[in-house]
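INFO batch 0412 | record 1 of 1 | parsing
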Amino acid sequence: MENPIFRDPEIALRILKQEFGIEGELSPLPGELDANYKVTASNGSYLLKLSKPNADVQVMNFECQMSAFLRSKKTLADTPVFLPNRQGHLLTTYQPGSGDEFVYARLLTWMEGRLWSGVPEYNVSLLQSLGRIAGNLMHSLQDFHHPAADKKDFEWDIAKAAWTKKYQELFRGEQKELIAYFYQGFEDILGEQDPL
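INFO prediction complete | emitting tokens
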């Protein structure tokens, strides 16, 4: 059963005010695991992430530390900054009442832009830019170590791309041939380690 306060915008507004000293308007955003909101305040925009009580705290700390690590590397991609609450913590545990229910909250700087899935057509320059940035991020993360990194298969990790192979049937023609070419390249590199 889902925690009833997990996706409650009123709780999100209270967390913003009480824990971060921010008042603003919320716009719900999609999210795989978290309830995400764009916060529009008088001093700027933010991303508020609310996580269920059973969320893996180690993974949330991993995300905070990875973001800080990437910012210290000055990568080709801008990365959001996790902002501390009034007590100076990046991860807030918020309990709205006297019961057992609570949520985890994290506040990040807002990154303006649009989702890759919202781009109507991909040209060579855009694809090359994506490849350059993704490669740069992967190279930058080679020196980053955290126990949660090996604990979970992150779908965004290009080294764990095997889960996407079943979706290649969604493509046709030249795109499908190109995808098959790169899958073969991954298999050649990975060998028996993690075949696609």
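INFO post-check: The chain has a mean pLDDT of 86.
INFO record closed
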